[in-house]
Amino acid sequence: EFSWKLKDHPKLPKGKTIAMVVLDGWGEAKPNQYNCIHVAETPTMDSLKNGAPERWRLVKAHGKAVGLPTDDDMGNSEVGHNALGAGRIYAQGAKLVDIALETGKIYNGEGFKYIQESFENGTLHLIGLLSDGGVHSRLDQLQLLLKGASEHGAKRIRIHVLTDGRDVLDGTSVGFVETLENDLAKLREKGVDAQIASGGGRMYVTMDRYENDWDVVKRGWDAQVLGEAPHKFKNAIEAVKKLREIPCTNDQYLPPFVIVDDNGKAVGPIVDGDAVVTFNFRADRVVMIAKALEYENFDKFDRVRFPKIRYSGMLQYDGELKLPSHYLVSPPEIERTSGEYLVHNGIRTFACSETVKFGHVTFFWNGNRSGYFNPEMEEYVEIPSDCGITFNVQPKMKALEIAEKARDAILSGKFDQVRVNLPNSDMVGHTGDIEATVVACKAADGAVKMILDAIEQVGGIYVVTADHGNAEDMVKRNKKGEPLLDKTGNIQILTSHTLEPVPIAIGGPGLAPGVRFRKDVPSGGLANVAATVMNLHGLEAPSDYEPTLIEVVDN
Ligand code: 3PG
Ligand code: CO
């Protein structure tokens, strides 16, 4: 008989205030000049590492340990926070789409059958991130889907590409567009009318998240749906090459463009009767466009036209909103997350970050589900992010504000768990600006200090960890680990996440003296953290959770 009630932990008391701090993009790597965490002054994190060896360790944050297809897959915030919050390892979107494509099951599913109804008289539009980053989407999946869709009746296909440079090296967009153009040429030989119709950089067009800046989505809408953009080209390879020449532009921030025919007419606006698929498997950066494509009533920007289309996501992106209602592949069924258990066991939770990471400690943490489990037991606070900037110009971001909110929540006595995400090392790391990333790491460290001080005051416990690596290595390396140079002799900046493990530290005056990390879970990963935190709340974890990282020895 299932029960939400968790057993009391045999040795650990209830009632301690716990700070659960997630440093975004803070991995552990060799100390060198490209390790911004090492270069930065980070006295707080250093003291945790050098303080008590039995209460600091590394955990896996990439590959199979977080449900990704292979151990060559770097970690990311979605899978990292899913694992932290759910306490178990789920085959993630990337993997589920791989399986659905390999087995061909994708073409028998409800979502595909639904869009297929448009193939006879309409166009199939595919919108998504064009790279092999494997964080939001993968090129090989797009290639298989293109082939499969054409074999299953799509006669006219238009692709709306979003260039990356964030999960992959900047400048790689050109090669990805070339590869795609090659595939499309082959399809055309087979009689399928297939073309790239529009494009733009992921951070400037379409892929905003958590409703930070609807203008980003609108720019995409104008190009993809209305066929309007400031830049018009006859050829997508030329478009990307030319737009990259604009000073200060890069793959992440390419302005929107549309492809036009000889008469200057856009080749692929979205019109009544068409089918549309957003081919990203990861949710956060396509939820907004999904709303624009799906909702009859929508007031975030003027859509001008709202075509009657058949829209399907690669996955269903939001389990609570059931958005979108049609999808090609069923998402991982992440259920009974630690957050849901906690509200059933009297644990009052406060969660906070700034907009660009807010959903990480709420939506992702709770298994891709928006909203509260029980608003009487939970409070989620979002600090508005600065809009329309690259965070290297503001590397401190809202770290201080987040820490102040956490401090106040801890001191208020109203919460048992105070959970935050500190975005700096990740968001600034993604800009590839090494100097700014050093400043970012220092700012995050200062925020940790403020939170630990509050925990000290209330006699609480802290758990400090990260969701994946980023700022600890800012250079692309060869197999031997040596920095790679580009043609001009400069190092190749790594804007993406890494394969590195992340630290976890526990402590604070409320921690029972005999608590230490067990030695028998050496390959522990982020999914082991949920049981650990439940124990620190004085509760036994559910039996199907990944094992706790801690034990209590009698002194
Ligand atoms: C992004 O969406 O910003 C990057 O692709 C991944 O970063 P995140 O996983 O840290 O959010
Ligand atoms: Co990131």
From TrEMBL:
Leader sequence residues? none
The subunit structure is: Monomer.
What is the enzyme's main class? isomerase
Q: Which cofactor does it need?
A: Mn(2+)
Q: Catalyzes what?
A: (2R)-2-phosphoglycerate = (2R)-3-phosphoglycerate
Q: In which pathway does it act?
A: Carbohydrate degradation; glycolysis; pyruvate from D-glyceraldehyde 3-phosphate: step 3/5
Q: Where does substrate bind?
A: 136, 166-167, 202, 209, 282-285, 357
Query: What are its GO biological-process terms?
Result: glucose catabolic process; glycolytic process; response to blue light; response to carbon dioxide; stomatal movement
Instruction: Return the similarity comment.
Output: Belongs to the BPG-independent phosphoglycerate mutase family.
Q: Which segments constitute the Metalloenzyme domain?
A: 16-540
Residue numbers binding Mn(2+) 1: 426, 430, 497
Q: Where is the active site?
A: 77
Positions with a binding annotation for Mn(2+) 2: 24, 77, 467-468
- The source's domain of life comes to Eukaryota
Query: Which GO molecular-function terms appear in the entry?
Result: manganese ion binding; phosphoglycerate mutase activity
- Report the main location listed first in the record: cytoplasm
For whether the record's keyword set contains Nucleotidyltransferase, the answer is no
Record's protein name: phosphoglycerate mutase (2,3-diphosphoglycerate-independent)
| Species this chain originates from | Handroanthus impetiginosus
